[in-house]
Amino acid sequence: MKPRFGIAPDDQALADAIVRFSAEELAPRAQEVDDQEISTVRYVPLLAELGVMGMNLPERWGGAEITPTALVLSLAAIAEACTSTASMIGAHFLATDSILMGGDDELRQRYLPQAATGKKLGAFALTEPRAGSNPADMATRATREGGSYHLSGTKHFISNAGEADFIVVFAKTDPAGGHRGISAFVVDKGTPGLHISAPEKLMGIRGAHAFEMSIDCRVFESQRLGQEGTGYRTAMRILDNSRMDVAATCLGIGEAALAAAVDWAQSRQVGGEPLAAKQGIQWKLADMKMRLEAAWLLTLQACAKRQAGIAFSAESSMCKLYASEMAAFVADEALQIFGGYGYTRSLPLERYVRDARIMRIYEGSSEIQRTIIARGMLSSRPI
Ligand SMILES: Cc1cc2nc3c(=O)[nH]c(=O)nc-3n(C[C@H](O)[C@H](O)[C@H](O)COP(=O)(O)OP(=O)(O)OC[C@H]3O[C@@H](n4cnc5c(N)ncnc54)[C@H](O)[C@@H]3O)c2cc1C
Question: 9-116, superfamily in CATH?
Fold first, then answer.
């Protein structure tokens, strides 16, 4: 990934270090990670040494306290080398952001410094077999029993869950309360009654494992994040952050696919000239570049608003939505430029296409992002 115009020197310097690390450590193994479905949790100690595992946290809690722009540049660089690694990190951030935003200082002290230094890995469990896009449909219950809660239910597609040391679990404390009845709890690995399945067989991001969890366990009241009924609000604030992480991951896929396509177009000879000499290919490259740049600008705009402390929910949804559609387009066009070679598993083009596909589904599908954006525009006069 080349340095970008208008980026503050400190942000760029941090990104440059991550670009070097990603090119040396992650990229050479990305194909093997995908082929053999090797968990990218193996990289956590190395990532922690660079400060990556705590990039989203303030210094007070052991984090790197970097700007949203530096975070986006770093995740994009990681995703350009290995999308699975970026996805695994994103799931960890979902968990640590939950504790940072929803927890008290005691919980923050107990989990965040260790999470930032890679000693503890987090997971975030919102989705259920019958509740994805609409969390208010969730069936997992948290029933108060003295000074603790009995948690019971099933969560699925939970990234990192099988390897995580702690999992933020969302459950209904008030089943009749809709989304206002949802609370969040931190559940430690090994808690009796917490069972985690083998990883799901995924189309892409095969090094970022996702698991089903069956929950029938007891947690102390002190493990609850904030007041009862605040879980949904906390989750929505966390997702505002994490959708920018997904956008960054998509920018990485777009960068990787476009760079591969440009190289190939210049070296592949067809009819006695490089593919790049053909106008039809040039137009494809121009469209790919334009959409990639537009996705960067939308994402950097969201970063600027977040940095300034201005509400950025719509910007976060727009950059996630646009960048995920851009990544799918750019990866698919890059594969097309490679022709039959692009369809083979000996080159990464088909992996980029598969990795890009989940970006339009998780952390709020494209349809849900459009709903959020439209609601933001229409909210001044209810429909
Ligand atoms: C690899 C992977 C990793 C994941 N990691 C996590 C994780 O770590 N933690 C976690 O909690 N979840 C995770 N998820 C779950 C993911 O966030 C959900 O799959 C996603 O939110 C969609 O929910 P669903 O699958 O239940 O689809 P549904 O909600 O059943 O939706 C199905 C389709 O209907 C559309 N739809 C739904 N509602 C509307 C509407 N109102 N208007 C128009 N269209 C609509 C959706 O966009 C979608 O296309 C992961 C999923 C995968 C596949």
Answer: Acyl-CoA dehydrogenase/oxidase, N-terminal domain (1.10.540.10)
Q: Answer whether residue 249 shows pLDDT above 80.
A: yes
> What is the percentage of the chain residues whose pLDDT exceeds 70?
99
Buried residues in 198-227 as b, exposed as e (16+ CB within 10 A):
ebeebebbbbbbbbbbebebebeeebbbbe
* CATH fold label, 233-379: Butyryl-CoA Dehydrogenase, subunit A; domain 3 (1.20.140)
Identical topology for domains 9-116 and 122-229: no
Atom 53, ligand 1: which residue's CA is nearest?
Answer: 157
pLDDT tens track for 181-221: 999 999 999 999 999 999 999 999 999 999 999 999 999 99
Q: With residue 167 as reference, give the H or E element that holds it.
A: strand 166-172
The binding-site residues of ligand 1, defined as CB within 6 angstroms of any ligand atom, are: 91, 124-127, 132-133, 157-159, 202, 210, 358, 361-365, 367-368, 371
